[in-house]
Design a protein that fits this description.
The chain is of the alpha/beta class. It has one domain: Purple Acid Phosphatase, chain A, domain 2. Helix content is 27%, strand content 29%. The protein contains ten helices and 17 strands. The strands form three sheets. Strands 1, 4, 5, 6, 13, 14, 15, 16 and 17 form a nine-stranded mixed β-sheet that branches. Strands 7-8-9-10-12-11 form a six-stranded mixed β-sheet. Helix 8 links the parallel strand 8 and strand 9. Helix 8 packs parallel to helix 9. It is globular.
């Protein structure tokens, strides 16, 4: 009995001690409260990833180039006879000497060679079916011309032989040409000239060939105006170059303002992406204008550059000019911007010795000079007029 009581007493005592210890241990007064502000710092062993440097701003590269163009090179007999220096030998360089600094001063210069330079081999001829000495081509090259347009109403005057002779000479003097070709393969190769990192493509078409039919099997001999074809080829040229230059032989002869057909074709071509449009055929100057395009850009068009060197005279047919247009290309990373800007014009005059003069230099032509400036700035009042070769 005593043994049981003793054991019971021991169990009760042990329970009391256990409860006491449990209560003391978990009592708030006996717990250590750690102030977060005073807690020991633990070194952060997390390795932060190295942040890459932000990509550098793409470099902006700006380049520019000037294009100049002249009108009809229309070589009548009275012109090539004046250039005769010996038996079947001709020299046209004196006729261009006064304007050479203005032709050679541009980055690219083009001319409309309206008469085929089939040469003396097939016999020279004048209006109405022209064939000119090859030396006029050489003179243009020496004066600074880089490309000739040769699709016009006189392209087929003396047939395929005259064309092939002409192309042989253009190739021999390394002069680019467009508008008439050796073959379909030749025609399919768009002419592109590059200057200062800017690529210019050149296309050329004519309204007709004075009733002479284009051989069905050889349509490449001359490009005829077709609005759908022009739009297709402008778009093709746009994919291959920065600037599309389109030459159109169209309009009404001796009319000083463009007709509705000219305006329609120019607007259609501009909508397709042509950047610069140069007109020929009227043999008198027609003023330039800007055409606003659906893509937000604008196209420069001059409807007729008149005669540059020809045997025609009076009634504005002996007044021509050199048009200039500036092109600026801005490249920033993958972005490219092309701007057509700063049009300018140099009126010219052909005297009776068939020498081409900058009109501003002729004291006896100042009245005509002022009238020409007013006429040409009709739709572009800010049009500048060139009066020094460096301008």
């Amino acid at each position: 009995m005593k043994k049981v009581t003793l054991i019971s007493l021991f169990v009760v005592l042990l329970s009391f001690v256990f409860v006491f210890l449990l209560t003391y241990t978990f009592s708030p007064e006996n717990q250590t409260v750690v102030d977060p502000k005073e807690s020991p710092k633990v070194e952060n062993t997390k390795i932060e990833a190295t942040k890459p440097n932000p990509p550098a701003e793409p470099e902006t590269v700006t380049t520019s180039a000037t294009l100049r163009a002249v009108g009809d090179i229309l070589i009548h007999a009275r012109v090539y006879n004046k250039a005769l220096t010996g038996p079947q030998q001709y020299d046209f360089t004196p006729m261009l000497e006064n304007v050479k600094p203005f032709l050679d001063g541009a980055d690219i210069t083009i001319a409309n060679q309206e008469t085929m330079i089939g040469g003396t081999e097939i016999g020279l001829s004048t209006y109405p079916q022209f064939n000119s000495p090859v030396e006029i081509g050489t003179a243009l090259k020496e004066a600074g011309v880089d490309l000739v347009t040769i699709a016009n109403n006189h392209t087929l005057d003396r047939g395929e032989k005259a064309i092939m002779n002409a192309l042989d000479h253009w190739d021999a003097i390394n002069m680019a040409y467009t508008g008439s070709y050796r073959s379909e393969e030749d025609r399919s190769e768009i002419r592109i000239l590059e200057k200062n990192g800017i690529e210019f493509s050149f296309l050329c078409y004519t309204y007709g060939t004075n009733g002479i039919p284009v051989p069905e099997s050889k349509p490449y001999l001359v490009n005829l105006i077709d609005a759908d074809l022009i739009k297709t080829e402008v778009e093709k040229a746009k994919q291959q170059s920065d600037v599309v230059v389109l030459s159109l032989h169209f309009g009404t002869e001796y009319e000083r303002l463009p007709n509705e057909q000219q305006k329609y074709l120019a607007h259609e071509a501009a909508s397709a992406g042509a950047d610069i449009i140069i007109g020929h055929h009227p043999h008198v100057l027609q003023p330039p204008e800007w055409i606003e395009r659906p893509d937000g850009k604008r196209t420069f068009v001059i409807y007729s550059l008149g005669n540059f060197l020809s045997g025609q005279k009076w009634d504005y047919k002996d007044i021509g000019g050199i048009v200039e247009i500036g092109v600026t290309k801005v490249v920033k990373g993958e972005e490219e911007t092309i701007t057509i800007e700063k049009p300018a014009f140099l009126p010219t005059y052909v005297d009776r010795n068939y020498i081409v003069h900058p009109m501003y230099q002729l004291k006896d032509k100042q009245k005509e000079y002022e009238e020409t400036k007013q006429h040409m700035s009709r739709w572009i009042p800010e049009l500048e007029f060139i009066e020094t070769p460096e301008q």
